[in-house]
Amino acid sequence: MRHNNTTVNATQINNLIALVQNAKDERARAVAIGLIWEKYGDKIVGIAAKQSYNMDSDFGYHGYSVADRRAAVMGETFEVFLKTAQEFDATLGVPFMAHAAQKAKWQLQTDKRENAKRDDREVSIDRARECRSYKKKT
Description:
Helices cover 71% and strands 3% of the residues.
């Protein structure tokens, strides 16, 4: 992100995060979130989309193009990003980008795990066995 042709550094990001966490004005909070998302949003969505390729356990994204997959994970990634910004503790020494990307991965894994639990299990039917058992009966 560039503002007046200067790059934003970690101190400025931490100041924006403090504004997100402490602003009394909702508009100021929204502007701060927008600026942070402008800086990191595309990278975090890319990481989440890549993670969805690595753990396609419930086949929910099969047949999606790269753009469709990014669009599918973007909404939830933003929710995780927003919650991460509201709860982030800069005193732990972890860069915000790394922390937010990891949280997005964990949320995607949790969603996939929960989705896999809800999916009905397929029951394998052995047609050859059924045919053999039918022949024995006659």
